[in-house]
Amino acid sequence: MVPSLNAQVDQPQQGGGHHGLQGMRERLSALQGELEADPGAHGGFSVCLRLPLR
């Protein structure tokens, strides 16, 4: 596992198709990867991506 990356969004982006997490899941699935998305431990949001090395 690699260290986490923390990012803060002051103003969430508006519009779009609202397919962000679903699109990420579909792309990861094609690569035999996984995605977990949950509320962050100290507020915010946590996203964990796992990809096989081979």
From TrEMBL:
InterPro entries membership: HATPase_C_sf
Region described as Disordered: spans on this chain: 1-24
Gene3D superfamilies per UniProt: Histidine kinase-like ATPase, C-terminal domain
Protein's name in the database: Signal transduction histidine kinase subgroup 3 dimerisation and phosphoacceptor domain-containing protein
Record organism: Dictyobacter arantiisoli
